[in-house]
Fold:
Amino acid sequence: MRPLPLACCLLLALPAFAQDAQRTEVTEAAQRLQGRVVEWRRDIHQHPELGNRETRTAALVADHLRALGLEPKTGIATTGVTAVLKGGRPGPRIALRADMDALPVTERVDLPFASKATATFRGETVGVMHACGHDAHVAILMGVAEALVAMRDELAGEVLLIFQPAEEGAPEGEAGGAEEMLAQGVFKDFRPDAVFGLHVGSSLNVGQVAVRPGPLMAASDTFEITVKGRQTHGSRPWNGVDPIVAAADLVSTAQTIVSRRTDITRLPAVVTFGAVKGGIRHNIIPDQVELIGTIRTFDTGMREAIFADLRNVAEHTAAAHGAKVDARIPLDHNYPVTANDPALFARMKPSLDKAVGAGNVVDPGLITGAEDFSFFAREVPGLYFFVGATPRGKDPATAASNHSPEFYLDEGALDVGFRAMLQVVLDYLEPSQG
Structure:
């Protein structure tokens, strides 16, 4: 899909905003900066970088912040960039976050600025693509930063700009992402009263914003179970302990954890096995089978109960077959629930209504995907919302999803995200003028 020229794209893709409800500053800034936001996004899209490797993107961001007269800090959690913008008057402190990393995905979208980049991922050469829209997040926050600097003399309060690496996860053996930025003190010297973030998504049309109070995205936990048997010839299974049969029974029995042991009338949960590895030859029963998978929950109590249930199923099912298990449930590098602070949601929902029109702000329901914005929102009240990326008139159900090599972002989403975030920021810092 080839985009229209920039000017036509902006004119045709922009949603019909309720201009009288938007702050004048938002409308004027959007008209002035959207061309630049689109250009930044295209440049970043054409030069994607994997987590903890976002050196070019970080340099682009830091140079832009310096040009605005700010003093960025670089190298946080490997490639992260932050800067504090101080308004001319006293007021609240807030943080705004954009993630910078791309995915090991080979792009299959016909764009003049499509990614041709490659990198090494887990020892293999892979294509690299902004298949989740983080290029849009960076460009939007760069634009919001410029808009805020232009009005800093009248601005009440302070804004911490966070450009975060490795939201999709750091390379094996490395720390990264929001958790590592916090560990390195990103909120130590600047403790915000609230933190805001957004994410573009193909499940919504351009012009729509999705948000809800309380749990929004699931906690994500990885597990690894090794079923240990005793190797023998396939023609004489009674001489060994078959870990393949034990593992198959374990996978099957584990399905009862959600279907029979978890009260899914309260909140949903997911236990998924993503890989089963064991054996190498048709007539040899191997020593062991490795299972890996993911658990998704929305409640801390349910999360801990599922951990315990899976350990119990693993140990006792294996024992019933004469096998043993090494169950690592959960592994490290897990994400907590992404939850929107209810009071902050109630305060800022009218701002999103003003930005895009109340009829365009929808409840997405619970999303079993995960986000490491959750670490920031666990420290201070947070608000996280989604911005539609699928062209108007196209059914989002048929659109390629985020993380797909066909993921396509209608650039009208950049305007929506910019206006929504800027409106939220200004209304929070200047509530009497909202």
Remarks:
- DSSP finds ten helices and 18 strands in the chain.
- The first helix runs from residue 6 to 13.
- The radius of gyration is 24 Å.
